[in-house]
């Protein structure tokens, strides 16, 4: 998308008589330079760039107290440990877990289930999993804060698109394993930097709540947001350049008069409030990184602060587990000696884990005839810590920590203990789950566990935790039932992953009966031209539009641009193995204020057509999939949380 300029006519203010001498020594070139500053004061300039950043072995990401914390609200934030150029990937990929129809059950809201911000599902392409899907994202997706003046990080939609199921080699028999449906396949949610981020700066993302009314920590009467700061920085650059180029021509009084004239008579109150009171401070503000850091100094900290208040969350990274059929695992990025803190796990409360039950309803839930039964717990349960005699579940929100797999006894190399960090509210270990079910009071992590090495761990070694005897008993029972039950009619053998691989080198087929396997859905990433009614072209009453190509992958593969689509015909065609020139004519259903309408789109390129699992057909929906919380040792689970005294052997 190109830069947008808002051109506004400038009305020349009257110049006081005592300021006239300010201009008389400036020639025509000088006046043009000054006019550039005036133009910048009334326009918006947007610049984007991309770059890569090599790993130099330093801790690249810290968890610490957020600069957005207030006296009565402690929040966690993410800080960069190294300089990050624009377009750099931040940390390691996060895991997204889709929650299916959970907001429709018992008229609960997402806040009543877990104290965390859920994301709309199209951010991770999860909207096709069911009728009503919300998304929980570990790591950055849970911990990045929003700031009214700063947005230096963003979702990277193309990477989310390319999440795929792990396929075991050896044919379909190998693909049928008891781990299917027990872990999320949305395992490549990434965030990137929108601009240069210096080491020690907190990272902020737009979480869609809308701009706040004022800067956090500021008491100014004017409103300031990131767009104001962009404009102010542009003006700042021009001012610094102007005063530097004309250093020999201007007296100090001349500089002061020009600066006062621009800030008091040309700019509005908002822009003026972002600049210093005197012109001799301009260069220093530019050197520190611009008006954003000048007005929000708390968002940038030094290494000493990070060492004292922060926790490195860059010590372990996600990779494919060494355990067959276990999905992703956590691996040591560096070596650890026995007794070291490998990572910290901030925890969120789920006061009643029954809130994570997926329910199938026959009839209306608002009628007495509605027949409701539990099909299976939500997949999110597998990422939670729990105890068989407690309704409580604890959800860790650091990505790699959520991926530590199970090994029993001496095969494990880490253990859990309650953290001694500032995050920890130890008093909450003495209160009941019912007391903690306060979603306004505890809508951020207030407890944490440290993952401690129980022996020396080598760099590159997989991290393992003993999930406890209750979990291990449940898993062995699941394996036995898996081996004895028929799976042919309950599990999809051909996955969307395989279908996408096939069409990397072969054209997509026109929709006919049976052209797409059962359980697979075709989607198209589409941006199409908007036409006035008088210019609309229609075929049998259906509007026909042209596909608009996007150079920016973040726009092209944004989840909001994904539609279920029907392929009507091939247009360009390069042969059975050449798909680069293939284009297609497709139809989609667009929801409008007037209702759903069919639209035909022409010129869809081959790489805009993809395949995903159909709604309610991915592995996580299968009622035979394994579900169980991760066990916490008896000696550290709080006695106050033990509120289930009579349970069956099958109870989680």
Number of helices: 14
Radius of gyration in whole Å, from Cα?
29 Å
Strand content: 15-25%
Shape: globular
Number of strands: 28
Average pLDDT over all residues = 78
Q: Structural class, judged by helices and strands?
A: alpha+beta
- Unreliable segments (pLDDT under 50, ≥5 consecutive)? 1-54, 164-174, 210-223, 361-371, 647-652
With strands numbered from the N-terminus, the spatial order across the biggest sheet is: 22-23-26-25-24-21-27
How much helical structure, as a percent, in the residues?
10-25%
Distance separating the two termini: 51 Å
Strand count, sense and barrel status of the largest sheet are: 7 strands, mixed
The gist of it:
This protein is α+β, with helices and mostly antiparallel strands. The chain has 14 helices and 28 strands.
Map the helices and strands:
Elements: H1 28-40, E1 61-65, E2 76-80, E3 94-100, E4 119-120, E5 133-137, H2 140-143, E6 153-155, H3 157-161, H4 172-175, E7 186-189, E8 191-193, H5 226-245, H6 252-266, H7 269-274, H8 282-288, H9 291-295, H10 303-309, E9 311-312, E10 316-320, E11 328-332, E12 341-350, E13 357-362, E14 371-377, E15 385-386, E16 393-396, E17 405-406, E18 414-418, H11 433-436, E19 447-453, E20 464-465, H12 469-484, H13 496-502, E21 520-525, E22 537-539, E23 542-546, H14 553-556, E24 562-570, E25 583-592, E26 595-605, E27 609-613, E28 630-631
Parallel strand pairs: 15-28, 17-20, 23-26
Antiparallel strand pairs: 1-2, 1-9, 3-5, 3-7, 4-5, 6-8, 10-11, 12-16, 12-19, 13-14, 15-16, 18-19, 21-24, 21-27, 22-23, 24-25, 25-26
